[in-house]
């Protein structure tokens, strides 16, 4: 954080979707810099453009106008191979619905990104086990996702997101499908990992539990950034009406 | 992670080479597709079943023809007259004065139609399979899979289904064809059967089934491989 190197930079991004005759503008000009190693939450009600912005940052969608830079590289200029490379090594994804591959065991799910990255099998297995150990599921490595609870599946997904030691982990509503306690555990784990490994964590959420651990919170409303709050400011708002605002 | 600050600049000149290194080794692809087939065994079985039936019908028709040809080639007048009585038409053969058993146009059309119906069935089944696996495909893409990985997985699966289905179908149809011949003409149907003809017929049936399976999956696989990864993010069960 001291270096303030921005790993993701969003400049004047707009995005419109064509719905037949109707054109919906999901983002109406967003500028945002995300710094290396920070834990950033993007908050906003559904329909605010939160997910759209989130997908842009993750290189999953391209802006209509404006630019998204990841590590100062304009992602609009990348070809399919480079985008795949980016998704493979630079970014780890965590989804609301876990999205583990059902036919594979926990360990295989974690090693899959490493396979894509060309890591030799032994090495991948070793690192996979280590990552599963990190999320406390080493003994369950041979289980299929169906045999794991929601929280455990999300842990596997977190381990998977770290497979190729990405610089950024994108978490889309990571606690959305989990109960309160499990959600808290997942948040604590994410926070711990971000601190221990220096990974930049960007999460789109409307889970207020996330606020406590975030370094910064970006509030999105109506396709624009409503406000950006630092952690210090946050505690004050949280105690007041902030938590009930949306 | 200290190194993210200075080293990992993925798209610098040195990074470009690395950028092309997203891989899925053939062995691994095979492993994944075998596993997918095993897990969705029942569904695969249904897809394969239509292929088995179509190929069996093809093999049955071809083998029936082979049996008749064998009897004709035996040169025995009784067998030949039995052949004519059974409703087979003789057509002038390749050499003057020789005859061969004509395959009727109707038979050919029925076989072609059955293969067409089977192809449509495979396309349908595979499109369903793709829809069912939207999330899986999207997730793989988010993890860095290229379009070609997805395409390859689907083609491998279909290839294996095609091979198994065609083999089973050819065997089933072939045996049925020979048994049918024996029921009509007795043992001579088997004794005069030319081994080369049988091998060729079986080979054709298997090849047809295999190609059919691949052709059937190509459109669904293309749809799957071109799916944008963002679909995984918004996909809901």
TrEMBL record, chain A:
Domain ABC transporter, residue spans: 8-246
InterPro entries: AAA+_ATPase (IPR003593), ABC_transporter-like_ATP-bd (IPR003439), ABC_transporter-like_CS (IPR017871), ABC_transpr_LolD-like (IPR015854), MacB-like_ATP-bd (IPR017911), P-loop_NTPase (IPR027417)
Keyword vocabulary terms for this entry: ATP-binding, Nucleotide-binding, Transport
GO molecular function: ATP binding; ATP hydrolysis activity; transmembrane transporter activity
Protein name as annotated: ABC transporter ATP-binding protein
A cellular-component GO term for this protein: plasma membrane
Pfam family, one: ABC_tran
Family from the record: Belongs to the ABC transporter superfamily. Macrolide exporter (TC 3.A.1.122) family.
Superkingdom in the source lineage: Bacteria
Classification via SUPFAM superfamilies: P-loop containing nucleoside triphosphate hydrolases
Record's keyword annotation contains Secreted: no
Automatic annotation (TrEMBL), chain B:
The organism's place on the tree of life at top rank: Bacteria
Keywords: Cell membrane, Membrane, Transmembrane, Transmembrane helix
Subcellular location: Cell membrane
GO molecular function annotations of the record: transmembrane transporter activity
Keyword Lipoprotein belongs to the record: no
Domain ABC3 transporter permease C-terminal as annotated: residue spans: 110-229
Family that this chain belongs to: Belongs to the ABC-4 integral membrane protein family.
Pfam families named in the record: FtsX
Species name: Fundidesulfovibrio putealis
Protein name: FtsX-like permease family protein
InterPro entries (alphabetical): ABC3_permease_C, Macrolide_Exporter_MacB
Spans traversing the lipid bilayer: 41-63, 109-131, 162-183, 203-224
GO cellular component: plasma membrane
Keyword Ribosomal protein: no
Major localisation: membrane
Organism lineage string: Bacteria, Pseudomonadati, Thermodesulfobacteriota, Desulfovibrionia, Desulfovibrionales
Membrane topology: Multi-pass membrane protein
């Amino acid at each position: 954080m001291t270096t303030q190197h921005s790993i993701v930079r969003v400049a004047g991004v707009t995005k419109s979707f064509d719905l037949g005759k109707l054109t919906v503008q999901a983002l109406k000009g967003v500028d945002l810099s995300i710094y290396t190693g920070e834990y950033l939450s993007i908050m906003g009600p559904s329909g605010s453009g939160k997910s759209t912005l989130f997908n842009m940052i993750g290189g999953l969608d391209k802006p209509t106008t404006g630019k998204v830079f990841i590590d100062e590289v304009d992602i609009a200029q990348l070809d399919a191979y480079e985008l795949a490379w980016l998704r493979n090594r630079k970014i780890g994804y965590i989804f609301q619905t876990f999205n583990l591959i059902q036919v594979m065991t926990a360990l295989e799910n974690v090693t899959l990104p490493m396979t894509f990255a060309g890591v030799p099998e032994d090495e991948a297995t070793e690192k996979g086990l280590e990552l599963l150990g990190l999320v406390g599921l080493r003994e369950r490595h041979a289980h299929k996702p169906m045999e794991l609870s929601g929280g455990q599946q999300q842990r596997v997904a977190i381990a998977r997101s770290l497979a190729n030691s990405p610089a950024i982990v994108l978490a889309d509503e990571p606690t959305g499908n989990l109960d309160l306690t499990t959600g808290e555990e997942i948040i604590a784990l994410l926070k711990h990992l971000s601190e221990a490994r220096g990974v930049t964590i960007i999460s789109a959420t409307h889970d207020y539990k996330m606020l406590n651990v975030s370094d910064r919170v970006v509030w999105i409303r109506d396709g624009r950034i409503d406000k950006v709050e630092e952690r210090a400011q946050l505690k004050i708002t949280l105690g007041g009406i902030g938590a009930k605002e949306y | 992670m200290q190194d993210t600050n200075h080293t990992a600049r993925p798209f610098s000149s040195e990074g470009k080479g690395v950028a092309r290194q997203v891989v899925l080794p053939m062995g691994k692809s095979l492993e994944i597709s075998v596993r997918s087939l095993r897990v969705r065994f029942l569904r695969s079985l249904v897809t394969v079943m239509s292929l088995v039936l179509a190929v069996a019908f093809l093999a049955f028709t071809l083998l029936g023809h082979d049996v008749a040809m064998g009897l004709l080639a035996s040169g025995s007048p009784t067998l030949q007259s039995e052949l004519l009585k059974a409703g087979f038409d003789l057509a002038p053969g390749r050499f003057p004065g020789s005859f061969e058993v004509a395959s009727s146009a109707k038979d050919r059309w029925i076989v072609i139609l059955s293969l067409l119906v089977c192809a449509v069935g495979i396309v349908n089944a595979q499109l369903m399979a793709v829809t069912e696996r939207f999330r899986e495909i999207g997730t793989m893409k988010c993890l860095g899979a290229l379009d070609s990985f997805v395409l390859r997985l689907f083609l491998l699966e279909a290839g294996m289904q095609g091979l198994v289905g065609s083999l089973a179908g050819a065997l089933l149809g072939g045996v049925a064809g020979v048994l049918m011949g024996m029921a009509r003409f007795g043992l001579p149907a088997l004794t005069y059967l030319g081994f080369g003809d049988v091998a060729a017929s079986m080979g054709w049936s298997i090849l047809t089934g295999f190609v059919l399976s691949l052709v059937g999956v190509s459109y669904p696989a293309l749809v799957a491989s071109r799916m944008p990864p963002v679909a995984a993010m918004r996909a809901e069960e």
